[in-house]
């Protein structure tokens, strides 16, 4: 098969049963879907299950893909649905914390202290990364999914809204709250890292 | 304070407004004097950077990739595609 075929061509060929094209689509997206599953579920076993189930559905249903949305929006939607279904089938590992809008009054009133330059050695430390994982798991799914799609996978507001079937303004509100929640807790974590 | 256009764009993104809209003009005026807003948005940016960096360190294990292709009955093709 020709290398570097545009995705549209790969999808057309995969729909016609071309296994090489199908295989290329799996190669192109498996890492992203694995990461999505990992962040949604918080563990490697579930991420692997989400990965496998997503691509099994893709292989089974690609013939029905009509191209009304982009291929990746379609695939992400499958993956998010698989992931959320998996989450629902399991007891929560952490109690969710209430998520609020940023306290703009406090932000404007207090003296703002900048964070230092990021120390990537600290972030790469396995203990710190576990804390990052725990923190994101505490976000309720509806905020976590938006943060993952918008900020970690860098999808647009419009694509994220289509995947989650919510309005763009809802996507923005959820993203703002998720970012604010993570920032607030990360601030405490970073302070603790500097002090210990 | 010099107005940071990127910062303004970021804040307007939250609000779904374009840079020439009325809310953005108000923000622009405010941010010319407000250090706190700049710090707040910088922290949000760093939060996202930290999570992106952490994600980049986590690679999909080889054995999981291989299992995936085997389960999709595509494992005979992976070498061709990788080349």
Ordered list of secondary-structure elements with their pairings:
The complex is a heterodimer of chains A (196) and B (83).
Chain A: H1 7-15, H2 19-41, H3 44-61, H4 71-88, H5 104-109, H6 120-124, H7 126-137, H8 141-152, H9 157-164, H10 168-195
Helix pairs in contact in A: 1-2, 2-3, 2-4, 3-4, 4-9, 7-10, 8-10, 9-10
Chain B: H1 5-15, H2 22-31, H3 35-57, H4 62-71, H5 78-82
Helix pairs in contact in B: 1-2
Give a written overview of the molecule.
By secondary structure, chain A is mainly alpha-helical. Chain A is built from 10 helices and no strands. Chain A is elongated. Chain B has 83 residues and is mostly helical. Chain B contains 5 helices and no strands. In chain B, α1 packs across α2. The longest helix of chain B is centred in the middle third of the chain and has 23 residues. Chains A and B meet through α2, α3, α6, α7 and α8 of A and α1, α3, α4 and α5 of B.
- Considering residues with a beta carbon less than 8 A from a beta carbon on another chain, report the largest interface and each chain's count: A-B, 52 and 42 residues
Biggest β-sheet description of chain A: none
Low-confidence stretches of chain A: none
From the alpha carbons, calculate the radius of gyration of chain A and give it in angstroms.
19 Å
> How does the overall form of chain B come out from the CA principal axes?
elongated
What is the percentage of strand-forming residues of chain B? under 5%
Q: Return the domain count of chain A.
A: 2
Mean pLDDT of chain A: 89
Domain module tally of chain B: 1
Q: Bin the helical content of chain A.
A: over 70%
Work out the number of β strands of chain B: 0
And the CATH topology of the largest domain in chain A? Arc Repressor Mutant, subunit A
Indicate the structural class of chain A: mainly alpha
The N- to C-terminal Cα distance of chain A equals: 56 Å
């Amino acid at each position: 098969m020709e290398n570097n075929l545009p995705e549209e061509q790969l999808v057309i060929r995969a729909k016609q049963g071309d296994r090489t094209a199908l295989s290329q689509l799996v190669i192109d997206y498996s890492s992203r879907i694995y990461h999505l599953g990992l962040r949604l579920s918080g563990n490697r076993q579930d991420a692997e299950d989400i990965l496998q189930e997503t691509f099994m559905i893709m292989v089974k249903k690609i013939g029905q893909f009509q191209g009304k949305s982009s291929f990746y929006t379609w695939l992400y939607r499958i993956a998010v649905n698989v992931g959320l279904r998996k989450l629902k089938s399991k007891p929560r590992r952490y109690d969710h914390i209430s998520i609020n809008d940023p306290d703009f009054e406090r932000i404007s009133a207090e003296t703002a202290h900048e964070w230092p330059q990021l120390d990537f050695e600290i972030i790469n430390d396995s203990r710190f990364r576990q804390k990052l994982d725990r923190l994101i798991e505490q976000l309720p799914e509806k905020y976590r999914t938006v943060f993952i799609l918008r900020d970690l996978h860098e999808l647009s507001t419009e694509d994220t809204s289509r995947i989650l079937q919510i309005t763009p303004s809802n996507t923005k509100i959820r993203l703002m709250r998720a970012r604010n929640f993570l920032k607030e807790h990360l601030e405490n974590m970073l302070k603790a890292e500097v002090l210990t | 304070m010099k107005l940071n256009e990127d910062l303004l764009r970021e804040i307007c993104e939250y609000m779904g407004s374009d840079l020439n809209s009325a809310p953005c003009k108000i923000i622009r005026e405010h941010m010319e004097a407000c250090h706190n807003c700049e710090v707040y948005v910088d922290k949000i940016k760093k939060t996202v950077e930290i999570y992106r960096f952490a994600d980049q360190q986590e690679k999909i294990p080889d054995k999981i990739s291989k299992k995936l292709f085997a389960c999709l009955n595509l494992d005979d093709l992976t070498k061709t595609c990788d080349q």
